[in-house]
Amino acid sequence: MKKFARKKEDKGLQNCNLFLLVRFNTFFIKYHRGVFMLLSDLKVGEKSSIININLPVREQIRLYDLGLINGTNIQTILEHNGIKAYLFRNTLMAIRNKDAKNIIVEDIYD
After folding, report:
1. Other CB atoms within 10 Å distance of the CB of residue 110
2. Cβ–Cβ < 8 Å for 106, 33
3. Global confidence as pTM
4. Domain check: are 9 and 42 in the same one?
5. Which domain, by its residues, includes 19?
6. Using CA of residue 31, residue 32, residue 36, residue 42, what is the dihedral sign?
7. SS3 category, 95
8. Same domain, 77 and 97
9. 3-state class (DSSP) for residue 41
10. Considering only Cβ atoms within 10 Å of each terminal Cβ, which end of the chain, N or C, has fewer?
């Protein structure tokens, strides 16, 4: 994952350190600290909503079949040795951090 900070000369942004451009393979998304993050960045007990899954097609289809699609609410339940357990749609599933780094989520504020 490569991060590119915006130039400080940009007059539209006063707090330019809050805005980053994140590159995932072939597409770019706008990243604002505290709004979008990676699934692997969630701490135990935090809730979020799936925005995008950027995995190989075979793995994407497997997650879609299990119900992990865009807009799904997900919560981190347990963390151990680079693997986290997530709860979504009454399903508890373990996902490796290397795979969770390719899933973009949005914070849910209760």
Report:
1. 3
2. no
3. 0.68
4. no
5. 2-32
6. positive
7. strand
8. yes
9. helix
10. C
What's the structural domain count of the chain? 2
Determine the Cα–Cα distance for residues 41 and 94; give it in Å rounded to an integer.
15
> What would the pLDDT profile of 9-28 be if each residue is shown by its tens digit?
444 434 333 334 444 443 44
Tokens of 85: 């357990």
Partnered with residue 38 across adjacent β-strands are: 104
How far is the first Cα of the chain from the last one, in angstroms, to the nearest whole number?
Answer: 29
What gap in Å lies between CA 64 and CA 76, rounded to an integer? 18
Q: Mean pLDDT across the chain, nearest whole number?
A: 77
pLDDT at 86 over 60: yes
**Any idea of the CA torsion for 19, 30, 45, 99, to the nearest 10 degrees?**
-120
Q: Give just the sign of the alpha carbon dihedral 1, 69, 91, 33.
A: positive
